[in-house]
Structures are given as structure tokens and as C-alpha cells.
Amino acid sequence: MGHSCFHGKLLVLTCIFLSMVLCACGYSKEEKRRMKEIQETGRQNGVRYVEEKYGITPDILDVQVCMEYSNGGGAMRRANGYVLVVMKHEDKTFRVHISGEEAEPEGRDDYEYETVRKEAKEYFQQVLGYEVYDILMEYEEIKDGEACVPSCHKYNLMSEPYEAGSFENMLQMYSFTIQIADCMDQDLTAMEAAYPFAAGFFRKYSEGWGNKAVLISYRSREDYEKGYDHTYGSCGILDFGIENDGLYIRSYAVFDGEEAKAQRFELLEYDGIILSWPCREGGSGLTVFKGEHEWLELGETDKKAAEQVYSVVREYPGDTTVYLPVQEKRSRTVWIQHEYDKKWWQYESNVKLTKDKEYLFFTFLGIGGSSFDFVVD
After folding, report:
1. Based on CB atoms within 10 Å of each CB, which residue in 44, 147, 220, 364 is the most buried?
2. pLDDT digit string, tens, across residues 319-354
3. What is the pTM of this model?
């Protein structure tokens, strides 16, 4: 997990986009020349910036010209005057965001990200009072005159050197989104009672400084490794799609400004199929049976292929994820049938494969209700 996922996505998307724009026939010779000049000046600025800040001379892996739409709009992006220089020194790869137009510009870099991440992990272990298995962070520097600096590459970049032991101060100076994962099979819906200090801490930093956090408790380390996605919290979206991992996640807690919520996933096995759903107190909330509901003739599917109809009945709204064991086929079609607005609907579901390739799964998002039928082809 960790920052490599975010850096990798940024790097790939930026490289793809840059190659497209540089090859586009819509740019004039003057604009292409300007981009090359920005790239070369940015390269020189980036090296000088690192030499002065860290006392090292890095190798240059890539220099990407930053592109954005002008304030007046337009169909094409233009170079905003900045570059993202990808560098390497010894075994460390890092990025520098710096002007390619100014002679002696200020820059930002993520050279010390791993140091910050290591101290953050130790810090939050003290706050929580239990072992943090992994931590993922995105942070953005907040400075006076920020509007003068383009935000094309803003996450995990720092202009000032990081002072060891200053992570708590950094929490009050940067805008953070944090994912903290443990593998202790904990019920974080009881976090207020089990870890009152930690719950108060995250509320304080969320409400007072605008930092966001999602705490996730996996059922085991093996389940963590099997997890479908480990980028919850990316771009500030704390729990989008987390229902996909209900098979592996016991519970999670979210702190987002004045909003704080916690959710626990329950599991039910039926006929070799595993169902996962966010549970509420006071009952299982879900039942499943087979062969009792009729597959309607709506012209969407072949009724002959719908002899085995599974029915899922929920007591309250919410998402339900269904995991189908992979047998001889790794690609299967799942059709869903449910009632909404006094009308019956049928459609093909989006089926995905778990990382360990043991299950195919789909999620019913509870549109108009949480009960539905499904058939598997």
C-alpha cells in the first residue's frame, strides 16, 4: 500500500497526458518551443533546488511540463510554467514541483515522505494504543500566497525541510487525509467506548483543522493482503467503494469535519456464496434463499437461464456485496432483478474478480430499497 500507489497513478496519468498534448497538432511552434524551454529551465531549477536543500546531486528520470486550462477556458490545456521533475538519488525516487520560468524559484518535493510516514505511524500508534499495520497519507501544504502557486501537483510535497519529531505540528499546518489500517478484527463502531482518547483526538483534528481520517480494521493480515483496494482516502474520499472489501474488513470509522460515522460488516454464507453487508444493531438485517421468487419475463434476459433465482431480503437500506466462488469460469454473467418506484427492473451487474482470484463479486447499491433477486449464468 502506501504512497507508491498515489505516486504511481499520478506519474502514469501525467505521462500519458503529456505525451498526448505534446503530440497534438493543435499547438503552435511558439507554444511547443515555450514548453521545451520550460522543461529545460525546470530541469536546471530542480537540480539546483535539491542541491541547495539537501546537499545531494540527483539523477533526472523525467521532466514533465505541467498543463492546465486557462482561466478563460478553451479546448486545450497550456503549460502553466511549472514542471514536475522525477529524480533519483541512490535507492530513493522522489518528485520536485518547481517553476520552469523563474530564475531562482521556490520548490516543493516529497523527498522526505517516507520519514514523515514513519513518524506518523509511530505517532498514531501512541494515540490509538494499538498496532498500526499500515498507513496511507495525502497532505497538502497551506501557505500564505498559496493562490500564486498552481495546485497541479500538490499532494505530499513540502517546501521546508521536515524537522524530526514535529509530526504533531505538521498536523496543524497541513491539510491531511489519512487512512490507518490494523489487522486486529476490531469492531470500530465501539471506538468511542474502547478508545475514547483516540476518538476525541480525531474529532478534534477533523473539526478544528479540517483533517480527514478513515480507520479500517481488517479481519486478519491475510485478509489485508487480499483486500481489493487499499487507496481509501485518496483525494479526500474516505470510504467510496469500501463495500467491495466487506469480505476482508471487519469495520471502519470515518472522521470528516463535523461528520463522524462507523460501520461494521457482517458475513453470511449460503449455498457456497458469501454475502457481506453493513450491519446495524438489533438483528442480522439480511436473509437469503433460493428458488422461491419468480424471475419475471421483462424481455431483458432468457428466462430459461434463470431457473435458480437467489433472493436477498434486507431489513434496512444499504449496500450488499455478493461473492461467488471461482470454479471453472472466471467470467460469469450476473443479472439483478428488483422493484423500484412501483416497477420491476432487470439489468446485468458489473462483476469483478478479487485480488486473490478466489471470488467473483458484485455489489447491489440498494437503489429504491435493499432487497433484490439475482441469477448467475
Report:
1. 364
2. 999 999 997 666 788 999 998 888 999 999 999 999
3. 0.85
